[in-house]
Every structure is written in structure tokens, then in C-alpha cells.
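C-alpha cells for Metabotropic glutamate receptor 7-like isoform X1. Go.
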Amino acid sequence: MVDIIKAMGWNYVSTVASEGSYGEKGVDAFMQLSREAGGICIAQSLKIPHDHKPSDFDKIIRLLLDTRYARAVVLFASDEDIRGILNASKRADQVGNFLWIGSDSWGAKNSPIHQLEDAAVGAVTILPKRATISGFDAYFTSRTLENNRRNVWFAEYWEENFNCKLMSSYKKDESSRKCTGQERISIDSKYEQEGKVQFVIDAVYAMAHALHNMQRDFCPENSGICPEMDLAGGKKLLKYIRSVSFNGSAGTSVTFNRNGDAPGRYDLFQYQWSNVSGPGYRVIGQWTESLQLNIEDMQWPRGEQDIPSSVCSLPCKTGQRKKVVKGMPCCWHCEPCDGYQYQYDEFTCKLCSYSMSPNANRTACQPIPIIKLEWHSPWAVIPVFLAMIGISATIFVMATFIRYNNTPIVRASGRELSYVLLTGIFLCYIITFLMIAKPDVGVCSFRRIFLGLGMCISYAALLTKTNRIYRIFEQGKKTVTAPRLISPTSQLAITSSLISVQLLGVFIWFVVDPPNTIVDYDEQKTFNPFLARGVLKCDITDLQIICSLGYSILLMVTCTVYAIKTRGVPENFNEAKPIGFTMYTTCIVWLAFIPIFFGTAQSAEKLYIQTTTLTISMNLSASVALGMLYMPKVYVIIFHPELNVQKRKRSFKAVVTAATMSSRLSHKANDRPNGEAKTELCENVDPNS
């Protein structure tokens, strides 16, 4: 019965037993074997009382319905109790709900299901294999009251079989027919050989063989029972009984195991309904130490095509683990493996490793896809477009200055520092392509070098210019002697020294922390693991980026301070005002950059936002410098060459004197009505004279 349940895939069954030795011991044996086999849980174990009433059967059905998933019910019950259970199921309108598994007390009998056939459809029953003993039929049908007086129960059988009363019967009933003694078995009554005749004969022979073997061992010299056998006791005799081995009445071997059980040989039946032959038992298999079941021959109630289920819990879906109910190994709750967990086995979810995420059905882990900023991304297209325009404009300005290298405007701009500044502006645009390129060791090395170098070169040149202007006019207020280090060579030396500080910092950075690429899984490790991405990036932290730009920002701030100090110098003499406007605008750009850069540190779009913000800020800084400092000059050089001519040179003393007077007059103009003060002192004087 345990093997049948496991073959059906059932793991949650109830048991019903008639109160008494057969039913209770049968259920106990079933439960013991089910525990040993594993995988079968008992939902309920119910008993039918001896003095039962119809309400007792109704209560049993109600209790069975409490565990509605346990449709399979194992029955160890008498014929009468089986009828009571089937009747109660009909009264409760539960015909076809339960899957009955009957013991050998049900077997292939019709009496338990008479007029209850519809409630018994689908019931699986077992019956020990039996053979009809032909000689017994001839012997038993020839028995009469005269030739079978030695059987003290035969007279009672005679009355029952022929429905009559013997004169010697203690139960006098005037209404009953009197037995004549001439009745004949199988002629005057129905006769069918009892199926257990084979086992009774074999049991008698087993006892005979045991006694024979015992007598042979204890008193081989004597015949019959000897005193030694009387003194041996029942345990010795039991040992001999369990040791016998012979061919039984049906031709099969009769042996016993150490528990005293004979080899199990069972036929398996199912009560089925056929439109052709009507209802009846059909052999669906056999059990001889192992189960042989023809599932395709089975028929289920309610017209079900597949094997009905009788399980406490349905199998968990893929990617879910079983959380077993305490004390009920067949019952569980299904819990999904969530987050970055995958289903390790049916009871366990495990976390994927750092660089992995669960696959779609959560049965294993797979590498997290790796992304980078692509060239076709909108986050890259805009900075690249601005950089290309800026590079083209820078090359055009530089080509124009080289073409008109000896003209007054180019010379007045300070050719050497102009070329240095244009180089820095060019590098500011170039860094855009390095920031978007696929990271590798080479790209990461160039990023470290050029990230702050372009800005450093630009602001070092501008700082040198503004510092020179400031020193010239401050010195002019005190003396007519020119300040030191204002020659082009000196200016280049100062600029180079400022740039070398940046290069020294980058060199130290290379030594302490060599450039490398990393895959950052934290940046886009979303709550949904299927959206997680690893970001391929250079091994440069946000703090290192700010430190790399920090020196350039320091130069920018210092340059802004000098631009403020020289704001009163007339624009006819120098580039102080354009430089001032350039630095004010640049400061605004970088003040906007810092909160955007750090404010998006926790964003899922951090890679894109920070890269785009950084590159656009550098493009804007370069564009501001290029537009305010060089575009007016290029405009004059190309479209108004008549203005690009040599003017009368003045001495340093004349330049400073004119600038000082012009500054004073411009201040006094505020005190005059309608702003009438004007000056024409030293206009268009070459600042390098």
C-alpha cells in the first residue's frame, strides 16, 4: 500500500481503521512503513468505534474534509464499516472526492459496495495472490451432516448456508424452515471456494513440517512426540516454524522472514465503471516484493484523465525554496529567492557572488553585464559635438595667429603665451574623447595626464598674464622702472614652472597608484538584479578627479583675484578686462559643476551624468577663454585688416603715465555732469613697447 501511494505521487494521506486488532494494527504497520520509506505524511488517523452510529461516519467524513488536500484515504476496516464510510460520503455529496485505498479486508468483494458502486469508483484494493485448490472443492461439496461430525462448526454453517434450522439448534424459530439433512452444497446453495483456503492448507503444512523437523532433531530414535519436545517450549517451536521451506498447495514456495511474515504476493484491483460491462473490479497490477502497476489501465472518478493529486503542498516553482512546516515534512510554504539570491537546492537560497546576478529562473548565477559610456549615447553625443566645434575653432584661431604671426595684434597679444594658452584650450577639448573612450590601461594613463593638464596650462598662462599686468601698473604708480620678469622668455619660464607642479603631482600619482581599469558593480547594483550592470571604468575615484583638478582650480581662483585687481586698468592698454570676464564666467561654470558632480554620486546614472558634466564644464571653460580672448582679435585680423597696423610706440614711462592719468580721469568723470570727461591719451599703444 505504501508503494502504491508513492507510485501515484501522493505524499499526504489519511487513514481510517475499524476499532480492534485488525484495523488498528494494520494502520500502525502502514504508518511505520511509511515513515521508513519517507516522503509520506499522515494528515489524520481516524477510528471507527465498535458501537458506531451513522453520525459517527458523518463525523469522519467531515474530519477528512478538514484536510481537503489529503484526498487519498487508506482503509483498514470491516465490510460493514466500509459500507458506512461510503454511505456517509454520499450523504455529504462527496462522491469522487476521496481516493480510497482498501486493505485485503476489502479485496475484490462485492458485499462492501453493494448499491454503493458510484461511491466506490476509483478505489484501489489489494488481495493476497490465491489459487483455487481443485481437490478441496470436491472434498467440501461432498460434506454432509453425517460425514462431517468432527467439525463442531459445520452444523452452524449448514443452517446459515441453506437458511434453515436444525432440530438440535438452540435458536428455535417457528417461522424458519426445518433442515432435512438432504441438502447438498453447490446444488441447493451457491458455492464459491473461499480465497484463503490455500493459506489455511499451507499453514497446516508449515506446522507439520516444523514439528517433523523438531522431532528429527530432538528424538531421532523415537517416533512421535517425545518428552524432550514437551520440554522445549513455544520459542523453540516458533524457531522451527520460521525455518521451514517447502512448496505449498498452489505450487509456490512457503517461507518466513525473521519477523514471521510469509513473502507478500498481492493482486491489485481497482473498482471501475465501464459502459460495456458495467461496474466491476479490474486487475491493475501485482506486488511480489516489488510493485508492478499498470497506471495506464487505471480509471479515476469524476472523469479525471490524469492521476489525481493528494499532496499537502504543490511543488514549488523554479526559483522558489521550500520552507517546511515543523513536524510535517510533506507540507511546506514556497518562498521565492529574492534579490541577488538563486535556488541552491529545493530548501535553500544562496546569494550570488559580488560580480554575479541570478539568471531569469533563479537556478544559477550569471555574470552581471558590463557597460561603459558608448559613443552613440546622448550623454556622449553632446560633449563630443561641443568638443569637435571647439577643436575646429581652436585650430582655426591657432592657424590664423600663425598666418599673421608678425602683425601688430598678434604681437600685442603676447605670441608666446597665446600659443601656450591655445594649447591648453585644445587639450581641454581633447579630454572629452579620452573620458568617453573605452577604458584600458593606455586610456586611463592619458586621462590622468590630460584631465587637469589642459586647464593647468590655460590658467597658468592667464595667471602669468594678469600677474604681469598687475605688476606693471602697480610698479608704475611708484617708479618708472619696469618690473622684473616681464619679458616673453620670463613669462614662458613662469608658466612652465606652474605647469610642472601639475606634472609632478601626476607623476607621483602614477608611482603610488599605477593606472588600471576596474569594473564597478556597486554603481548600478539595483534592487532588481536583472537590471544590474557593472561599469567598466578607470581606477580613478571622485576624490582623485577633484584633486587632479584642484591645482587648476587654485590657479583659476588666483587668476580671478588678479583680474579683479586689474579691473580698473583701461582696456586700450591690455587684456585685463577680457581676462576678467573670462575668469568670472569660468568660476560660475565650475561652481555649478561641483554640486552636480557630487550630488549625483548615488544616482544610477552616475557614470553618464558625471562624465557629461565634467566634459561639458571643461568644454565651456575652454570656449569662454577662446571666445572672449581670441575671437575679437581673429575678427579684426580677418575682417578689418586696416586696424591691424603698427601705431606709434611709447616708452614704458609714457604708457604707465597715460594709464594712470586715464584711470584718474575715468573716475572723475563720474563727478562731471552728463559724463563729459574724455581722454585720448596714448590710445592703441603697444603694451610690449
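The chain has four domains: 1-131+264-297, 135-169+177-192, 320-367, 378-514+548-645.
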